[in-house]
Amino acid sequence: MTEETHDPLAYYATPGPTTDAGQYAHLFRDLPQDIPSLVRVVQGVLLHIFWAERYGVTLSDERKLEVNLRTVEAQLARMTQLNAQPLTIARPPEQRLVGNCRDFSVL
User: Would you place residue 44 in the very low, low, confident or very high pLDDT band (cuts 50, 70, 90)?
Assistant: First the structure.
C-alpha cells in the first residue's frame, strides 16, 4: 500500500498495470456483483490452453499465442475480436480467449 492508501479494501479494489481494463473498462459495467456469477462469466469467455481439446477445440499455433497476452486490456481487446457480445454471454469454446490458470485468476 502507498502512503496515500491506508484502506486495504480500496487498495486491492484498484486496478494495477496488469488488471486495468483501459479502454475496455465499459465491458465491466453490466457484470454481476456476486462471486459465483462472476466465475461463470470468466469461464464463459476463457478457454484453458490445456483443456481446449477436451472441449473439442484444436488450437492453431496463432491461437495458442493468446496465452501470452498479459494485461486485461489486451485480453479484452482480443475477446472482442473473437466475439463482440457482452461478456455476460458465454461464448462457444472456439470463440473464447485462450489462457491458462493465471488468466482465470487475473480476469
Answer: very high
